Amino acid sequence: MSDQVKPLTIWRITDGRAGHDTQSLGLTTAMSVLTPCRIHDIKVPSRLGLWSGLLNRGFNAGEPLPDPDLIVGAGHQTHLALLFAKAARGGRVIVLMKPSLPTSWFDLCLIPEHDKPSAQT
Question: What's the pLDDT tens digit per position in 57-67?
Answer without folding.
Answer: 778 778 889 99
